[in-house]
Amino acid sequence: MKMKKIFTPFENIGKNSRLLIILSWVILVAVFWFVSSMGERHLFPSPEQVGRGFRELYNEGLMVHVGSSLWLCLKAILIAITISLTITYLSTIPVVMPVARAISKLRYLPLTGITFYLAIIISNARTMQVWVLVVFMSTYLTTSLLSMVSSIEQEEFDHARSLQCNRWEVLWEVVIKGRMDHVIEVIRQNLAIVWMMLVTVESILVAAGGLGFLIKNSDKFMNHGRIIALQIVILFVGLSIDFILDYLRKAFFRYSKI
Question: DSSP assignment, residue 108?
Fold first, then answer.
């Protein structure tokens, strides 16, 4: 492998070269972590502290809290997907389009404001956690789905009409069925935002548990080893969800151009 190639834009490299580059970056990050954890005043906790944090978390029921977070996330996602898909598909009707665009603009609302108004309506804290995530995800998901619909080529609609499809059949064949692979990809991308915000939302109700409770509790006692360990767990679970959704999309839509 010529060194010049790996620093050249749009250069195609082999699989072995790609693995070597990834390994080099992993080693570089490991060295940086080791150096940053040395001395009296260090940026990161040592690998030993992180390992001890993993053991403590596991003994305190880490898997139960992971399950609680996943269940909360799943409920919010299913509701948000149902709302966003319904609004997006109906946005092809002129009278509904302003509503869809208005919901899309709500993504600029701060999380604190959403929590304040939901607290007035909803008394149950666990239910409020779900709906905070639902509102948060629905705005971003609707925005992405509206962009997906607007990017459909006019030729596809014309082709459906040439097959004597009525307006509702065009909606079903071109937008709903024809873009199902894009929908899964949009959900996969927006799910990362929700998973990132999960810890913040879970701090609303500490008694319900979850990864947010563990991080808040660890931060309270300044246990940096546990905090880094939890960050690694959150990252690993998030990447696992991302991998599963990407695998399912490729498995069910083998001829997708995404």
Answer: G
- Which ranges of the chain have pLDDT less than 70? 1-2, 204-208
pLDDT of residue 206: 66
Using an 8 Å Cβ cutoff, are 72 and 210 in contact?
yes
Q: How far apart are CA 163 and CA 147, in angstroms?
A: 26
Contact 212, 201 (CB under 8 A): yes
Q: Are 229 and 237 in contact (CB under 8 A)?
A: no
d(CA 196, CA 125): 20
Residues in the chain, total: 258
The pair of three-digit structure tokens given for residue 36, joined into one six-digit string:
């940053």
Is 76 within 8 Å of 133 (Cβ atoms)? Answer: yes
pLDDT at 205: 67
DSSP 163-205: TT--HHHHIIIIIIITTHHHHHHHHHHHHHHHHHHHHHHHTT-
How many CB atoms sit inside 10 A of residue 211's CB? 25
What is the CATH architecture of 65-252? Answer: Orthogonal Bundle (1.10)
What is the pLDDT at residue 103?
Answer: 92
Strands (E), the chain: none
From residue 125, alpha-carbon distances to 28, 129, 131, 216 in Å are 43, 6, 10, 17
